[in-house]
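1st attempt posting a full record on here, be nice pls
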Amino acid sequence: MNILAVESSAGAASAAVCCDGKVLSEVFTNTALTHSRTLMRCIDAALRCAEIDFDSIGAFSASIGPGSFTGIRIGCATVKGLAAAHGSPCVPVSTLEAIAYALAGVDCVACAVMDARCGQVYTATFDCSDGFRRLCPDQAVPIEELCAFLKNLQKNIIFIGDGAVLCYNRLKDVLPNVRLAPENIRYQRAGTVSLLAYRQYLEGEAIPEAELVPSYLRLAQAQRELKRRLEQQKGERQ
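the predicted structure (as tokens):
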């Protein structure tokens, strides 16, 4: 079973091909170019490196968020288009889960964190020593709220993701059991997306391409501003 996966939820973009749970190839780029220019190049290179053509792909996968609104849209739209053209199913993968999966098998709790701005982080935690078990849903919360949750955990906690340094620096004096993931595995990549997609495919979680949608967790800044102005105008009228 061959799966083509893409990851474009942050500044970097990557594509990977896995076969029956083994990553055959992965192409990663972290340039200043937009994902609309780089992602298809990554996909083409990943397929060529694996010596696999599109007709051999059984399912397509994308990290659906949270993360950059534009990046997630590009990744999902690309996968939807490829899946529709080949009549193949899609497997949606949480960006946070893909980040944390780099620590699968390590005796720790992985706390995946991405900087969500506005004083918040996108986060989810996973017990990596017990079959990679999710401990909470993906959420956008203030760092103080994340701290309150982590205080109840007894295991070593490893921050991983582009918000890892931010959270570690803020919480290391409050939570003595926190550490930073090594930089070489700290950020999201399509390889872990493909491995999770294969596992989810076996568990029956593949969906038609039309049902693949981003998971933003919160409104875009423009939508938040509009909502704030409407509420302000409503208050003034009252």
